[in-house]
Design goal:
By secondary structure, this protein is mainly alpha-helical. The chain folds into two domains: 30-92, Winged helix-like DNA-binding domain superfamily/Winged helix DNA-binding domain (Arc Repressor Mutant, subunit A), CATH 1.10.10; 97-234, Four Helix Bundle (Hemerythrin (Met), subunit A). It is 72% helix and 4% strand. It has ten helices and three strands. The chain has helices at residues 2-13, 30-43, 55-62, 66-78, 97-120, 122-140, 144-160, 165-182, 188-208, 211-234; strands at residues 52-53, 82-85, 89-92. The longest helix has 24 residues, at 97-120. The relative contact order is 0.10. Mean pLDDT is 87; it is low at 1-15.
Length: 235
């Protein structure tokens, strides 16, 4: 018996017997695909906060069943992009002042981790620089929605530099909710314009490797950003 076990182990080691192979990753389900389409439309402002998502219209548009639509709404609700209110249906979520303050509290906790990663990693700094350059080009074309998109890319690059799937997934959720807040603001130039220069300044400090100055700049950045968003939606 012992000899047979040794022989079998030898065959496996030499590659003559293969261990079970992992299954291929599953394709996205119909509900996941439909949710991704709606997610993009929400992020791009085609479906504004407060818009009602009618089950029958979504089912007809995607040629899917109502049961699948309910799964779509469940996925988007889990991501905090829609609200389901009894007797009122499903609506694109409208952010409150309390929601926004909670987002910025989270940003103050996690973004310093990204800054440390960026100081140590030239590839992260290059990704941040590319986002600033694209935002600068968009500002020259008065495309302030694009400037806002590149602002999101700047901070996404920062957090992806941590090389943590958990942090990146959490930050994606935060960014999606932040875009919902931005959709409430009437003047994208007024919102995004000042932060192009702030992103550039933050990047300069990161490239200089001045950690204390970077953290101080980030704290001022997030304080100003939170106040600007709150003032805009409360006006």
């Amino acid at each position: 018996m012992k000899e047979k076990a040794i022989a079998k182990r030898t065959l496996v080691d030499e590659g003559e017997l293969l261990p079970p192979l992992p299954p291929l990753p599953p394709r996205p389900s119909t509900a996941e695909h439909a949710a991704s389409v709606l997610r993009v439309q929400i992020a791009e402002g085609r479906l504004l906060p407060g818009t009602r998502l009618r089950e029958e219209q979504v089912a007809e548009s995607f040629a899917i069943s109502r049961n699948t639509v309910r799964e779509v709404f469940r996925l988007l609700g889990h991501e905090r992009l829609v609200d389901h209110v009894a007797n009122r249906g499903v609506h694109v979520r409208r952010m409150t002042s309390q929601d926004i303050s909670a987002l910025y509290r989270t940003r103050r906790l996690v973004e310093p981790l990204g800054l440390r990663a960026a100081i140590a990693d030239a590839e992260v700094r290059a990704a941040m620089r590319a986002a600033v350059d694209r935002a600068t080009a968009a500002a020259e074309q008065n495309d302030w929605e694009k400037v806002g998109t590149e602002d999101v890319e700047f901070h996404r690059a920062l957090m992806d530099g941590c090389h943590s799937v958990h942090l990146s997934a959490m930050f994606e959720q935060l960014l999606a909710e932040l875009r919902l807040a931005f959709l409430l603001l009437p003047d994208p130039e007024r919102l995004h314009g000042p932060y192009l220069a702030k992103n550039r300044r933050l990047l300069e400090l990161v490239e200089a490797g001045d950690e204390a100055a970077v953290f101080a700049e980030l704290d001022d950045y997030l304080t100003c950003s939170e106040l600007d968003v709150l003032r805009s939606i409360e006006a």
